[in-house]
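Batch manifest, entry 17 of 40.
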Amino acid sequence: MGAEAVTETFDAIVVGAGHNGLVAACYLGRMGYRVGVVEARPVVGGVCVTEELVPGFRFSSGAVVLSLLWPKIVRDLELHRHGLRYYHTGVDRVGIWDNGRVLVLYPELDRQLRALERFSREDAVGLIRLGSEIRRFAALYEQTVLAPPPSMEAFREVFAGADRRVFERIVLGSVGALLEPYFSTPELLGFYAFPGMVSVDAGPDDPGTAYVYGHHAVGGLDGSLGAHGFVRGGMGGVTEALAASARSCGVTFLLGTPVARIIVADQAVAGAELADGRMLAAGAVISNADAQRTLLGYVGRSELDAEFVTQLEGIDYEGTMARVYLAVSELPRYEAAPHDGAGPAAVHRAFALLGADLDRFRAARRAQRAGAIPEDPVLEISIQSTDDTSLTRTGTHTLNLGMMHVPWKLASGSWDDHRERLGDIAVKQLLSFAPNLERAIVDRRVATPLDWERSYGLTKGNIFQGAMGPESILGRRPVAGWSSYRTPIRGLYLCGSATHPGGAVSGAPGHNAAGQAIRDLRDGPLSTDEWLARARRTGPPPRRRRHGRGLAAVSAIPAGAVALHTFARMPILRPVVRRVLTTKAASH
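Output type: C-alpha cells
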C-alpha cells in the first residue's frame, strides 16, 4: 500500500462495532495503542443494540437479557462509570402452558423449589441435582473462558473419575438426555430445555444440545450462577457504555463505513480499504466478523492455502431464530395467569416461555428440517417496558417475541415472501395464551434469519457466528488448529463469537483476542515462523479444581439430594445458598 494512498494510520483497526469488537478496542486503547473501529452500520452494537423498530417503541433487537457479561470486563473497562445500568425486576423466569399451568420463579432458590413442588416434589429435588452437576461443570469450564482455549482432548482429560460422566453428558450429550434423569413433568422438561434450543439446527434429542444448554447456564450476572437481568434502555446500553469507554481512551470510530477488503502484503496485514475508497494503514486488524466473512470475504481465497480454505468452507452456520416485535396498548392477560388491574403482574416482569414442551420442540425441529416455519412454536417473550419506561410512551408496552427452529432456507419461496406469515404464526400462538392482545396490537415488525444476515452481517442468520457443539468449541473454534484468535495472515485476528468461548453477550472473545494482539504488538514484528507458532498453540487445560465436587457427590446420592433440597428451601439459609451459587467469575 503506497504511502500516498493512505488516508489515516492506526496501530490497530477493529472491523465491526459489535460488543466483542468494542471490548477489543477498549483493551487496545487502554494500552495506549491508536485504534480505529470501522462499522458498516450507522450505530455501534451489532445485534447487542436498542433500536426504534416501530415508531415510538424501542426494542432490544437481538439479545434481550444480560447474563454472561464477565465481571472482570465490567471492572476493567469501567462500564458502570460509562453509563451501564442493569437491574433485576424481582422475578426470575416464567413459564406458561396452554393446559393452564403456570410457573413463576423468583431469584431465591428456596422460592424456586417451592414453585417446582407445585408440579412435583421429586422434580424440585431434581433441580438440586441438575444444579450440582452444572456447578461442577462450571468449576472446570469457566477457567477456560478468559484465555485461549485448550484442545478438546486436553479439556476431556481434566474430567477424571466421577467427572467423566459430567463431560459426557454436558459436552457430548443431548439436552433431553441431560434433563430426563432429573425431571418427569413434561412442562418442566420443556421449560429447562429451552437454553439448549437457542439458535440450533437440532432438536432436544440431538447430541451437542446439552453443551448449548451448559454454555448458557454456567455464567451469571455479577458471578451468580444462572442469574440474569435487563439493561436500562435495552441491550444497546451495554454497547453504548463500551463505546464511551473506548472513546475515553482515544479510540476513533468510523460509523456507516463498510470495509471493502482487508489489505494483505507478503502474508501480513497492511490495513483496510473502505467501501468509499479510503485506505487505512495498520499493523494489526482485529475482525469482529465471522471467520468466513473475514477470511473468504475481506481477505480473499487467493491469500490462503487450499487446506485452510477447505476448513473455512466446512464451518457449520446452520441454526438461527426469528423475532417479532409488537407495540401494544395493553399488557397480555394470560388465561392461565389472570391478574387484576392494568399494571404489570409478576408474569409480565420476567423472561417468559409460552408452551415450552419437548414434543413441541421436536415438532418444530421436524418443520425446520423440512424448510418450513413451525406452525405451533414455543415462544419466548420479554416485556421490558414494564420496568423501563424509557422504551415507549406511558400506557403502551413493547413485547419482544423470539421463535427458535426456523430454517435458514425455506423449501418454498423466500423470507421476503414469508416474513409476515412468520409474524402471523407468532401472533396467533401468542393470542392463544392472551386473547386480549388481538385488540391491543398497535404495530409490529418481524426479523427473519435473512434480516440477521442482511442487516447485521450474520452468515445464514446464525447469532453465534457458527454452531456450538463438540466439533466446534474450544480448540476447534472457529476451525481446528486455529483457536488462538490469530489467523494464517500475520497481524490478523478474529475477536467475535466465531472464536472461543462462542456466542452470547459475554465480551470474552473480544477480551481474549485483544490480549493476544497486545502481546504480539508489545513483542514487536514477528517472523512468519514466530507468528505461526503462536497461532497454532492451544491454551492450557483448566486445573482440576475441587470446587463443586463434594456438592455433586452428595447430590448424586438420593438421600443426599433430598437433604440438600431440604436445606436449600429454608429462607434462613439464603446467604449460604448465594455463596454456593457464586461462580469463580465473580472474583475474576
